[in-house]
Amino acid sequence: MIVELVSFRLKEDVDRGIFLRTSDAVGDLLQGCAGFHGRSVWEVPAENSWLDIVFWDNLEAGETASNYLRHHLTGVEFINYLELMSVKIMYGDYRGSTAGASLLPNDLQTEG
User: Fold this and answer.
1) How far is residue 35's CA from residue 67's CA, in Å, rounded to a whole number?
2) Into how many domains does the chain fold?
3) Can you list the pairs that 76-82 forms with residues at least 24 positions away whose Cβ atoms lie under 8 Å?
4) pLDDT tens track for 13-55
5) Is the predicted pLDDT of residue 85 greater than 70, yes or no?
6) What average pLDDT is seen over the chain?
7) Facing residues of 41 across strands?
8) Number of neighbouring beta carbons within 10 Å of residue 96
9) DSSP state at residue 104
10) Which domain, by its residues, includes 43?
11) What residues form DSSP beta bridges with 36?
């Protein structure tokens, strides 16, 4: 399993509520993608930024979904809210968590 971590800032004129509704719609789209396990979106107010964390079976699943979103109306709308120069995407292999804290979706917390 891999984690996709995307950090970004919103454009200044973006309404936070509209962005969150669009983000929820993106989450609905991702649920239908092969290899998807879960997603969480975090706001980092002190940094005026956001984190979008998604768990995938493998890198190919994440890249296929990203390509799908770039060609879907809702995905394009989501992307248009971002300051593109601020976007950073990283992929990593899940290695576990400590002290019971987990970023994994609930259905994956008991799997090995």
Assistant:
1) 14
2) 1
3) 77/22, 78/19, 78/22, 78/23, 78/25, 78/26, 81/10, 81/11, 81/14, 81/18, 81/19, 81/22, 82/8, 82/9, 82/10, 82/11
4) 999 999 999 999 999 999 999 999 999 999 999 999 999 999 9
5) yes
6) 89
7) 52
8) 7
9) S
10) 2-94
11) 56
Say which CATH number the domain at 36 has.
3.30.70.100
What does the alpha-carbon distance between residue 94 and residue 55 come to, in Å, rounded to a whole number? 9
Whether 105 maps to a domain, the answer reads no
What are the DSSP E strand ranges found in 1-112? Answer: 2-8, 36-44, 49-56, 88-93
Residue 3 tokens, joined: 């984690």
Residue 29 within any structural domain of the chain? yes
Assigned domain for 69 exists = yes
Residue 7's alpha-carbon distances to 22, 44, 89, 98, in angstroms, are 17, 10, 7, 23
- On whether residue 110 sits in a domain, the answer given is no
